[in-house]
Design goal:
The complex is a heterodimer.
Chain A (H helix, E strand, L loop, with lengths): L17 E5 L7 E7 L2 E12 L12 E8 L15 H14 L11 E11 L4 H15 L8 E9 L2 E4 L3 H4 L6 E9 L5 E4 L7 H30 L4
Parallel strand pairs in A: 4-5
Antiparallel strand pairs in A: 1-2, 2-3, 3-5, 6-7, 6-8, 8-9
Helix pairs in contact in A: 1-2, 2-4
Chain B lengths: L2 H12 L15 E5 L7 E7 L2 E12 L10 E6 L16 H16 L9 E3 L3 E13 L4 H15 L1 E5 L4 E10 L7 E8 L2 E4 L3 H4 L4 E7 L5 E7 L6 H19 L3
Parallel strand pairs in B: 4-6
Antiparallel strand pairs in B: 1-2, 2-3, 3-6, 5-6, 7-8, 9-10, 9-11, 11-12
Helix pairs in contact in B: 2-3
The chains are: A alpha+beta, B alpha+beta.
Chain lengths: ~240, ~260
């Protein structure tokens, strides 16, 4: 049998509809909105600013600090209890690692760049949406970057590899599922986030990474367009 | 805020104007958008000028409290997200978020806006529990009024999920709305020097001497009050501020 048709009718290599906006939170130094299907992420960047407590200050380079939070009403079913749980802390950490290679922290000694990611509505793929939003927000904040980062989750649903899993696919019951969030640095094509849960063959992983790189080229364009949209001089 | 800037605000107020050109008793443009969320049982996005607040309703079934065996429960919570303001820090709710949540809660609870008896499924055993969460996206002042408006709009928007007596199917919403009897509106009046203003921006909030949040029912009755700020108020001040609150609440009511 296998997974022959996607639940929402998408092609296997097609992401959900994406919408991106830059600079939507005025108080922040940089911000972004990133929507992928029903999953919505906001990101705000504050800084570079002085880091406290003082012993965290590093005179040779700055620090990138990410936070990830699902709003209490963001999911179907039970309310999400507020506050950082272990999952949120881990996602914040991998988000940091995903963005770190493109941010030039050598230019910001003794400082911190805070990135806050908030999710008002979730339907799987939240960490990827968060990373996409954060990358736009960092650029919007004018942080020195040598590249941008895009991310997408590749899934294996039964016998098929699919791009941008939604929740109905993540919880597919007709066979086994693997979820592989991947972040790609746009110009170099390097991978800065790779996680996987489920089970996956070596061959499939190879294919999954290629699929992610292909999708991320499209996502990267949407991210750049969002920034251009804000900064381009309208004639 | 520097002393110079404080003097500057005061100088402007003497002339009856504000930095953004508004009159002292004028709100910034308000928008209310209901149902932004597909997953929450009810939701609303409120903007007042650049201030933007989300509120979402979640419902579940629980055992009633023993002193009110035939009444459902309601809880309001606020998370002052660090994404919305450089001064907010991550971590457990600070005193500021607790105050906002409790003041909004009080307005709704004390006016008996929700008919909690109608939330009872089986006396002593099962009642609906309603939780509303407030999440600001951008804080440019007056989170109190924006939050109160967002919570009420979200409650108006909420629909019960389908329930067959044993399990709740959150994916299927019924057409049944919450038993809302009243719509209390919150208007926060600020005193700076000898001047009273409404709807302060973040800049103005830093200069506040005292603050009075006035929650008003449709017929003009007060259902909750909360004084804030470091300076005291005279009885005259309070009367004036309440008067402004009642007057302005009529404008806000139009958004519900």
């Amino acid at each position: 049998m296998g997974y022959t048709k996607r639940n929402d009718g998408r092609k296997f290599d097609e992401t959900r509809p994406i919408e991106a906006k830059a600079g939507i939170i005025k108080r922040a130094d940089g911000s972004a909105y990133f929507k992928m299907g029903k999953t919505v992420a906001y990101a705000a960047v504050y800084g570079p600013r002085e880091i406290h407590p003082k012993f965290l200050q590093n005179p040779t380079k700055g620090k990138l600090r990410c936070y990830y939070n699902m709003m209490p009403f963001s999911s179907v079913g039970d309310r999400v209890r507020p506050g950082a749980n272990r999952r949120a802390k881990e996602i914040a950490m991998v988000t940091e690692k995903a963005l770190l290679p493109v941010v030039d922290l050598g230019k910001f000694p003794n400082s911190v760049i805070d990135v806050f990611i908030e999710l008002p509505q979730t339907d799987a793929g939240t960490r990827c949406a968060g990373i996409c939003a954060a990358s736009i927000a960092l650029a919007d904040a004018g942080i020195l970057m040598n590249d941008m980062v895009a991310a997408v989750s590749i899934g294996r649903v039964d016998d098929k590899l699919v791009v941008d899993l939604d929740y109905s696919e993540e919880s597919y019951e007709g066979g086994t599922v693997a979820d592989i969030p991947i972040a790609v640095i746009s110009r170099t094509g390097e991978i800065s986030l790779l996680q996987m849960d489920g089970n996956l063959s070596r061959e499939d992983l190879k294919k999954a990474v290629e699929m992610a790189k292909k999708s991320c080229i499209k996502i990267d364009k949407i991210q750049r367009d969002a920034l251009k949209n804000k900064y381009e001089v309208k004639k | 805020m520097s002393i110079e800037q404080k003097d500057h605000i005061l100088g402007f107020l003497e002339k009856g104007i504000r930095f953004d050109g508004r009159k002292l008793d004028e709100y910034r443009p308000i928008t209310v958008e209901r149902g932004f969320s597909e997953n929450a049982e009810g939701s609303a996005r409120v903007t007042i000028g650049d201030t933007e607040v989300l509120a979402g309703v979640k419902m579940s079934i629980m055992e009633p409290y023993s002193d009110t065996p035939d009444e459902g429960t309601m809880m309001i919570n606020a998370e002052l997200l660090p994404l919305s303001n450089p001064d907010f820090e991550p971590g457990p709710p600070g005193i500021q978020s607790i105050e906002i949540a409790r003041v909004v809660d009080r307005g709704i609870r004390e006016s008996k806006a929700i008919d909690t008896k109608k939330l009872c499924l089986k006396k002593g055993e099962k009642v609906w529990s309603i939780t509303v969460d407030i999440c600001p996206i951008n804080d440019d002042g007056n989170l109190f009024d924006a939050s109160a408006l967002a919570v009420l709009a979200a409650l108006q928007d909420a629909k019960f999920p389908s329930y067959d007596g044993t399990v709740i199917d959150y994916k299927k919403k019924t057409k049944e709305s919450l038993p809302l009897k009243k719509l209390p509106v919150s208007c926060t009046v600020i005193k700076i020097g000898n001047h009273f203003i409404v709807d302060p921006t973040n800049e103005e909030e830093k200069k506040v001497d005292s603050r009075l949040t006035v929650e008003v029912e449709e017929n003009g009755t007060l259902c909750a009050l909360q004084k804030g700020g470091d300076k005291p108020l005279t009885a005259e001040d309070i009367d004036k501020m309440v008067g402004i609150g009642i007057e302005k609440s009529k404008e806000l009511k139009k958004f519900l």
